[in-house]
Design a protein that fits this description.
The protein folds into 2 domains: about 120 residues; about 45 residues, Type 1 dockerin domain, CATH 1.10.1330. About 10% of the residues lie in helices and about 35% in strands. It has a 5-stranded parallel sheet with strand order 1-5-9-13-16, with no helix packed on it. The protein has a 5-stranded parallel sheet with strand order 2-6-10-14-17, with no helix packed on it. It is elongated.
């Protein structure tokens, strides 16, 4: 998704998955115009950027001369060459990253400077948090409701935590057993 030239959308509870950009920003690109006079300052909350790629920078997210705010996002398994596989910040030092998880991307998790609002997890390898079906860093009622909502046969879905092809009481017990923050 391209957010360009003074476009300031609010994106919440969304997933950007399996996308490709011929240049930068496989999942999302927040860019200013060529003269850098009209930034694109998106407000992105509770979104997942997974398995996206870019031929240049920002496999998951690319930010150029803009100041978006990212709160409680997960950026994982994205690819870009040569850098910023997860997120690429280009001349965007006021872009904010808060309570987010950036892990398992290549090449590099984050490239460039940004404002660290705290609570971020930035690691080369993602730490498994069993029961956290939406990968928000917390096992809570959202994960429990996702399992109940997918009850029954569900081969390959995220809420089939034990991987037996069925969402059942075993998956609920795993969620309840890991209740709370993944940290």
């Amino acid at each position: 998704m391209s957010v360009a030239y003074r476009c300031d959308p609010i994106l919440s509870n969304c997933t950007f998955e399996n996308n490709h950009a011929g240049r930068s920003g496989g999942g999302l690109a927040c860019v200013a115009d060529e003269a850098h006079m009209y930034p694109s300052n998106a407000d992105v909350q509770n979104c997942i950027f997974e398995n996206n790629s870019a031929t240049e920078e920002g496999g998951g997210i690319h930010v150029r001369n803009s100041d978006p705010t990212f709160i409680s996002i997960v950026v994982t398994s994205n690819v870009a060459n040569p850098s910023g596989g997860g997120v690429n910040f280009y001349e965007s030092t006021d872009a904010q990253l808060i309570n987010s998880t950036i892990c398992g991307n290549s090449a590099s998790q984050i490239n460039g400077n940004f404002t660290d609002g705290g609570g971020n997890i930035i690691e080369d390898v993602c730490t498994l948090c069993e029961g956290d079906t939406n990968e928000d860093g917390v096992v809570d009622v959202t994960d429990l409701l996702a399992a109940v909502g997918s009850w029954g046969p569900c081969s390959g879905c995220a809420v089939d935590i034990d991987g037996n092809g069925v969402v059942n009481v075993t998956d609920l017990l795993i969620i309840v057993g890991n209740w709370g923050s993944c940290e």
